[in-house]
Amino acid sequence: MSDPSIEIRCRVNGEDVELSGHPMTRLLDALRRQLHLTGTKEGCGEGECGACSVMLDGRLVNSCLVPLVHAEGAAIMTIEGVADGERLHAVQQAFIEYGAAQCGICTPGMVLAAVDLLQRSPHPTEADIRAGLSGNLCRCTGYMRIFEAVVAACVAAPGRPGSSDTGARQ
Amino acid sequence: MRSYLPHYELRAPKDMTQILGLLAEGEWRPFAGGTDLMVLFESGKLARGKYVSLWGLKELSGIEVTPDAVTLGALTTYTDVLAHRVLQSEFPLLCRAAAETGGLATQNRGTLGGNIANASPAADSPPALLIYDAQLELISVRGTRQVPYDRFHTGYKRMDLRPDEIIRSLTLPRGRGPWRQTYRKVGTRRAQAISKVCFAAAADMDGAIVRDIRIALGSVAPVVTRCVRAEDAVRGRRVDAKALETARRALAEDIAPIDDLRSTAEYRLRVAGNLLLQFLSEHTS
Amino acid sequence: MFIGQPIPRREARAKVTGHARYLDDLSMPGMLHGVTVRSPVSRGILRDIQYSPDIPWDEFTVVTAADIPGRNVVALIEDDQPCLADGRVNHAEEPILLLAHRDPSWLEEARRGISFEIDPLPPVYSIEDALSGREIVWGADNIFKTYLVTRGDVDAAFEEPDAIVIEGDYETGAQEQLYIEPNAMLALARGDDGITVWGSMQCPYYVHKALMTLFDLPGEKIRIVQMETGGGFGGKEEYPSIIAGHAALLSWKSGRPVKLVYDRAEDMAATTKRHPSQTHHRTAVSRDGRLLAVDIDFVIDGGAYATLSPVVLSRGTIHAAGPYFCPNVRVQGRAVATSVPPHGAFRGFGAPQSLFALERHMDRVAAAVGLAPDELRRRNFIETGQTSAVGQVMHDPIDMAALLDRALELAGYREKRARFDAANRASAVKRGIGLAAFMHGAGFTGSGEDHLASIVTVEATRDGRVRVLTSSTEIGQGTNTVFAQIAADALDVGIDQIEVVQPDTSVVPNSGPTVASRTCMVVGRLVESAALTLLATLKGAALQATDFAGACREYTDRFGPLRGSAQYQAPPGLRWDDERYQGDAYGTYGWAVYVAEVSVDTLTCEIRVDDFVAVQEVGRVINPVLAKGQIEGGVAQGIGWALFEQVAWREGRMANAQMTNYIIPTSMDLPPIRVVFEERPYAYGPGGAKGIGELPMDGPAPAIANAVAHATGADVARIPIIPESLMQLLERAVV
Questions:
Q1: The CATH fold of domain C277-445+580-734
Q2: What is the pLDDT of residues B135-157, one digit of tens each?
Q3: CA distances from B216 to B252, B253, B272, C4, C730 (A)
Q4: What CATH code is carried by the domain that includes residue A62?
Q5: Residue A167: inside a domain
Q6: In chain C, N or C terminus with fewer CB closer than 10 Å?
Q7: pLDDT band at residue A1, thresholds of 50, 70 and 90?
Q8: Are residues A141 and A103 located together in one domain of the fold?
């Protein structure tokens, strides 16, 4: 069987980039190994834990399940793109203040899921938050500090995303 | 990640004709959102070979509403389902199923067509599709054909889908009227769960009499199943204690639950019966 | 004053921006990837290794037991476990062969190209089978260790005429730690320069010791560096010695850096889990509810090799009689060998298992005597000055009754119990409320801390920056932050002046492992002492400067490097007899009462925890946000263990080694968890703090089991209480 390597163009955290490799390369691996954006983590490789979450064309996806060929022309945001330079997103600020990160391995995915949730639903109830984060597994926290952080982030910056290019408009 | 990449090919032509052409060659298999196939791929269990990506094809996307029906493109994601007003108001069980499929990230990428073609007996949407008398349109280089969804799955992981065909759309007939409806997925946990029993039912009630009814169950047989014996046992009858017992016994004939990693045959049988009886009892007022 | 303040975790910014560096984020030029090829069968004689002719094996680095330069042993307690199987396999997933290659994808293909010819031997898959002696798989009798704790005269007490005797059997299943970051190591073995391994781990010096043995190298030639670690919970206590050894062997043989990262399925199937347990309780109680005799037979399944089973057994045995006073106690503890991957450390370490049995049993004892569950506890709580089952006179100021009152009040226990009893009759959803009372010893058992003889060093640079050097690892529990708070307060400087140095065995002294609820209490106290020693040195040097930075500059210029060290000294009066297993088992204990409220849908037997109250006395709360996080996280793991997490064993292998099929709670499955701390300062903890890391693991399972029993009348005796099991229990009750 031939090795049909492809090259694709997409936009990652606001910058135009080229990614290459086998078309079935996991987007997770392309981000981590080619762009050295190691903030996106592998926790399970089966789309269950959400540690690999990124935003793809404005939607939260598990990057371990996205083949490279599907990233052609896409706008992608990883955890590295959430803050606006040195200015942290309200969610990140709240995570720090409320102790929402313990070991931190689920944190990048959890922050993205929370950012996505607040964009879709600026004033979520606790039930909304529990449902919105249900695809991101945490083993350390029991989720309590995370809920408090998300509630605090709504109050701090209602409906305002942090990064300039989340891909949401594409 | 257990697979050896060179054993696979994945192409993404933008053109429907090209895609159907590849499928007609015989070696290519369709690849939609990847939420099933990539999981197999990572565990080293995806069959080696050639895959053609359908993702993004407009011919397979979109939800069209006419006075008689709602037609959903095969690439409709669960998120698309949840965002659609007509589906929310007229086909609530499908929306319940979509909301309970995986987590948000899965709902953003998983497609109805991919889910149907994956043919898992534990899939969440199929029971709702059976309740709503869904029709599938299949397409290949040879043209299109319609298959009623309740005749599509012919056995465990077997379906009325030829190697060169893909699902193009699903059509849900409108205008059924105010049937009582319920959907309940009993899973291993409250989110991101594979179902142990997936129950969907809709009934047209006249007081305590069942004018018409649909009952569908997932995870209790090799395929998602319309429970016709249970339906026949109560259709046209008054729901009373005797009818409930008859219904439970008839249901046991419709399904064939097994022991597996997630649950037991005994549990599935009991729970399926309990959910059916609850539905019937609740809607006799 | 930083102690007591909710200082944000110091690595928080790095963690929320994706800049924290975990092992798999590391790369080196020329790096190879490694994989482990494992036995597919439980037990047998390894006759041959077959290499597929389709793979160009000369491209690969191949390592077997024959390549091990030192001793083929994972140095821990018994030294019975080989690093690579040699001639025999004793459990499925046992590592036999290692491969390395530059291309991780090709490596997977090569892994599939290896097969083994193994002549099977009969395996042992249960505690019963192990104890029957039908097939001996370890030692002379399949028993890793036995302990016998006795106090008073249990047999005589059972003979007392008015004694009511209640017996019961309780079972807990294996539990996978499921840290979200799988095990991962990167090794660089450089001929005469020695070996460096970076990795995800809890105990750098355990890995250090293991590699010394494996390579027959002196300590100075081995350097272990802990990277940011994505969860451990005990699962990265002893296991890392194996994966580090494997990565190092591949690097040794190939001459290149080698990264070895497990995928989730391998990590779940092959690495350690919580020991399954079976406990038999036989209790004699007086008519007015006073414990007369407690007779416990506690058995844990250790899997194929000893690993830490003797120590897990020790803690489980010592905690088995719980926070109660009884003049006549007998606890027999045994750890047995079976033919499954060895079980190992998991938060709680034997105590959750024995406390589950005890606290579930206490509810049944209460019912037998006609007392409410809380009243039975109240009549038997151990008090300050009384002697425990192992003969420890409890000097801790204990007030379990107050904790009980507080927990019951917060949970609305009495009112709910009555309300649920009335409403359940007519409802398909049954509600219940249950409690558990317990304690957890902090630090290593008995003389363990003396043997560890932990050391901490605190250094000050010329410009007044402070470096805290310990081998304690940050694994999410807050080590770095808490140590900074303690050091800053001891030195009376700003917290930003404190650096907690990354644990690197070439830099930091051996402060012992990050386990056993000892990090804040024992090592934190040493941080405090070392800092105070440094301060005393400064103060004793007749310096002109009045500020800390100025004094450091002056001292360094006049005298040289400024540092303070402290080594563990047992608190005065602590005595432990290893032979008779008697004495002061732990310097202090955390004390707790937890209450769980559940609802059970009788149509499906699904159980939901609706509310959870956790009240504990912990000495001193160093950081309220971190401490709360520890309790909440431990409760979540306890809920998982009680209701969801089940290992599906098929012929000695974990058949559900996927996150899809091994079920941990999502955000939708957990209740609000309400945490309350009481503080009675412990004289030998930093600022008065006791250890709390494991405490929250002990309470949830029995509280939930008791709540489910209250809701449904089901005589729950095993966990996990999955709906299928509950359905069977309820059917049995009706018949």
A1: Aldehyde Oxidoreductase; domain 4 (3.30.365)
A2: 999 999 999 999 999 999 999 99
A3: 13, 13, 10, 58, 27
A4: 3.10.20.30
A5: no
A6: C
A7: very low
A8: yes
Instruction: Give the range of the structural domain holding residue B220, as residue numbers without chain letter.
Output: 180-282
- CA C195 to chain centroid, in Å, comes to 28
Q: Which residue of A has its CA nearest to B12?
A: A69
Nearest CA in chain C to B269: C604
Q: What's the pLDDT tens digit per position in B35-83? A: 999 999 999 999 999 999 999 999 999 999 999 999 999 999 999 999 9
**Mean predicted confidence (pLDDT) in B200-215:** 96
User: Can you tell me the distance from the alpha carbon of C453 to that of C449, in angstroms, rounded to the nearest whole number?
Assistant: 6
Banded model confidence at residue A165, pLDDT cuts 50, 70, 90: very low
- Are residues A133 and A68 located together in one domain of the fold? no
| pLDDT of B240 | 94
Q: Do A103 and C626 touch (CB under 8 A)?
A: no
Instruction: Tell whether A106 and A124 lie within a shared domain.
Output: yes
Chain C CB contacts of B42 under 8 Å are 263
Q: Are C725 and C714 in contact (CB under 8 A)?
A: no
**8-state DSSP, C307:** T
**In which band, very low, low, confident or very high, does the pLDDT at A156 lie, cut at 50, 70 and 90?**
confident
Q: Within A6-140, where are the H helices?
A: 27-29, 90-98, 107-120, 126-132
Do residues A32 and A95 both lie within one domain?
Answer: no
Is CATH 3.30.365.10 the classification given to domain C454-567?
yes
Q: Does residue B121 sit in the same domain as residue B192? A: no
* Residue A48 and residue A10 share a domain: yes
Is B284 a residue whose pLDDT tops 70? no
Q: Tell me, what's the pLDDT at C191?
A: 77
Residue A158 has pLDDT above 70, yes or no: no
Q: What is the pLDDT of residues B211-262, one digit of tens each?
A: 999 999 999 999 999 999 999 999 999 999 999 999 999 999 999 999 999 9
Average pLDDT over residues A2-20: 92
Domain with CATH 3.90.1170.50 in chain C: 23-121+183-261
Largest interatomic CA distance in chain C: 87
Interface predicted TM-score of the whole assembly (ipTM), two decimals: 0.97
Question: Does A73 share its domain with A95?
Answer: no
The shortest C-alpha distance from B214 to chain C (Å) reads 21
In a domain, A131, yes or no: yes
Closest by CA position to C587, among listed C438, C392, C387, C401: C392
- Residue in chain A closest to C180 (alpha carbons) equals A43
What CATH number should be reported for the domain holding residue A146? Answer: 1.10.150.120
Q: Tell whether A67 is covered by a domain.
A: yes
- Residue C458 pairs in a beta bridge with C468, C564
Fold of C23-121+183-261: Aldehyde Oxidoreductase; domain 3 (3.90.1170)
Residue A160, min C-alpha distance to chain C (Å): 18
- Residue labelled with tokens 């012929």: C651
Of C179, C659, C670, the CB nearest to A48: C659
What is the per-residue pLDDT across C213-268, written as a single tens digit (0 to 9) for each? 999 999 999 999 999 999 999 999 999 999 999 999 999 999 999 999 999 999 99
**Nearest-CA distance B30 → chain C (Å):** 23
Q: Which of A23, A54, A80 is the last residue of a domain?
A: A80
Among A48, A80, A140, select the one facing C633 at the smallest CB separation.
Answer: A140
Chain B contact partners (≥3 CB pairs within 8 A) = A, C
Tokens 């099977």 label which residue?
A: C120
Which residue from B231, B224, B220 is spatially nearest to B153, judged by alpha carbons?
B224
C427-447 in b/e burial notation, b at 16+ Cβ within 10 A?
Answer: eeebbbbbbbbbbbbbbbbbb
Mutation target among A87, A144, A148, A151 for the C interface, most CBs of C within 10 A: A144
Number of domains in chain B: 3
A18 and A69 in a single domain? The answer is yes
CA distance C597 to chain A (A): 17
